[in-house]
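sorry to bug you again but im stuck and you know this stuff better than me. theres a chain ive been looking at and ive put its sequence and its fold in token form underneath. id like you to explain what the token line says about the fold, in plain words if possible. anything you notice is useful, everything is just below.
___
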Amino acid sequence: MDEITEQFLIFIRLFRRYTSYHHKNLGKYGNFLQGQGRILAVLKMRPDISQKDLTYLLAIRPQSLGELLVKLERNELIERHPAQEDRRIMMIHLTAKGKKVSEKMDEAHNIALFNKLTKEEQVQFSQLLGKLSNAMQEELPEGDKNERFYEDPQRHFEMFKQFQKTHGDLPVKFFETETKNKCCQKHK
């Protein structure tokens, strides 16, 4: 194994431990990168969202989301209720208790480790990661149609950034349009 691969593997393992360590100090919901913490982070931006839209936005299976929602509901952090315009649509709502918990999570959103780098190093590191991500994306075969979010994680993050900026139109529409365009282009 060459040195750069070895150093990168060490970095990945340490980075997981590092983020887990810092997030656990914020309690069991403190990790906005996974599980219930991810759901609370999205609900903090949009306190009332449909379960279907939340599934798309978080790029997880409906069954997995359902299990996480049951836990959050049991701890009185969320409530579920039918949508007024269509009672078949289940809406997820952040409770007052859930709002308090999600407020604590703001502390965890920026990972202090990267402050060890100068601004120029941060830009360069980000560019290098982007370059390697693009190379991997080009080389990997097309993913399973049932896991379309994982075909293009960069596209997924773009969708999430749009959601953070707008708080209005759900990026699901944006994402579905892109997916349909890709599909149509492939069949031409």
